[in-house]
């Protein structure tokens, strides 16, 4: 009986969604600020339509976010070309993470609406399966150190023949 009350209490305390699917795009969100040059970022890779950067918080070192340059709320608003570009860049980042951190796998995660999406600008998490080292608010130096490792691995990967 206690477990039923615990479940009821948990259901009653679920946080409201940060970014409902029908929300308007917020031009003041953190990624919009980065894209506008109003906030700093540790960028590891860029394409004409996407950037990859180190997040301010992570559970595993080497975590990277891939975001479109265009103001896009969620996956529903992305074009097919943007989706392909995002995943191609995520794949490049995953290869660089393996070179930089020696991880044997990775997760690509993308959240939409509900309580899962915390920034209302679509983004893809590329998370290496490195040991957990949770950081709630990284310093610029911590972010830059991770970025340098990934950038170095991307440069080394660029020298390899295409497959």
From TrEMBL:
- Entries under Gene3D superfamilies matching the protein: HIT-like
Under PROSITE patterns, the record lists: HIT_1 (PS00892), HIT_2 (PS51084)
Q: Name one GO molecular function term.
A: catalytic activity
InterPro entries with a match to the protein in the record? Histidine_triad_CS (IPR019808), Histidine_triad_HIT (IPR001310), HIT-like (IPR011146), HIT-like_sf (IPR036265)
Annotated GO biological process: nucleotide metabolic process
Active site (catalytic residues):
123 (tele-amp-histidine intermediate)
Motif residue range(s): Histidine triad motif: 121-125
By its UniProt entry, which Pfam families does this protein fall under? HIT (PF01230)
Residues of the HIT domain: 30-137
The protein's name in its UniProt record: HIT family protein
């Amino acid at each position: 009986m206690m477990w039923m009350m615990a479940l009821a209490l948990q259901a009653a305390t679920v946080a409201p969604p940060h970014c409902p699917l029908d929300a308007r795009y917020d031009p003041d969100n953190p990624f919009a600020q980065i894209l506008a040059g109003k906030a700093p970022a540790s960028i590891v890779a860029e394409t004409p339509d996407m950037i990859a950067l180190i997040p301010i918080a992570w559970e595993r070192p080497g975590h990277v976010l891939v975001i479109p340059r265009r103001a896009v709320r969620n996956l529903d608003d992305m074009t097919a070309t943007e989706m392909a570009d995002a995943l191609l860049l995520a794949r490049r980042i995953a290869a660089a993470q393996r070179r930089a951190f020696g991880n044997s796998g990775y997760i690509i995660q993308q959240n939409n609406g509900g309580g899962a999406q915390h920034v209302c600008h679509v983004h893809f998490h590329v998370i290496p399966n490195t040991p957990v080292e949770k950081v709630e608010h990284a310093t610029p130096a911590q972010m830059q150190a991770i970025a340098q490792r990934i950038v170095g691995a991307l440069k080394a990967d660029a020298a390899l023949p295409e497959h």
